[in-house]
Amino acid sequence: MPPRAFLTLAVAVACLACSGGRGEGGRAPGGHRAVAPGVVFELLRDNPDVLVLDVRPFSAYESATGHLERAVSLPAADLPRLWPALGLSREKTVVLYGDDGGPHQDAATQFLASAGQRYVVRIAGGLEAWRAGGFAVVVEDAPLSPVRLD
User: Fold this and answer.
1) DSSP 8-state symbol, 127
2) What is the per-residue pLDDT across 12-54, written as a single tens digit (0 to 9) for each?
3) Rounded to the nearest 5°, which phi and psi values hold at 77?
4) What is the chain's alpha carbon radius of gyration, rounded to the nearest angstrom?
5) Alpha-carbon distance 95 to 62, whole Å?
């Protein structure tokens, strides 16, 4: 993990560690942190090599609700099958989100923890909180075609 990414992540986790609530920096499944959208925005702004995963179903990724600019659609249901094919280092920082911080994020976080991924950040409140915070999303003009990796 690049020093700047680690420092940003460490500061974010340290600042939010005392808040305790899952939606405001508390522990997420797998022991990874749910971090406020503003902190995630800064992490992404300062660290272009962070992998951003939209773990909602693909139909949600291409819907009118949009997705984060650098996000890759990798639905939580497909994660166990497709993750090994990506061949990423366990040191790679991963930011993930679902619609509202619920079941898609829970499943993805639990899987990544069991796979040994060390630096996983969930957006507290998911895409709903991101949008409510006034952060930009991308809405595709034309439907995208899924790419088959198997």
Assistant:
1) H
2) 443 333 333 333 455 555 558 899 999 999 999 999 999 999 9
3) -65, -30
4) 14
5) 19
**Residue 12, C-beta contacts closer than 8 angstroms, at least 6 positions apart:** 33, 35, 39, 42, 43, 121
Helix (H) or strand (E) holding 107: helix 103-114
Q: Is residue 71 part of a domain?
A: yes
Give domain status of residue 149, yes or no: no
**DSSP string of 67-90?**
B-TTEEE--TTTHHHHHHHH---T
CA-closest candidate to residue 13, choices 26, 4, 23: 26
CATH code for the domain in which residue 72 is found: 3.40.250.10
How far apart (Å, rounded) are the C-alpha atoms in residues 76 and 4?
A: 28
Q: What is the pTM of this model?
A: 0.76
Output DSSP code: residue 29: G
Angle between helices 103-114 and 79-86 (to 10 degrees): 50
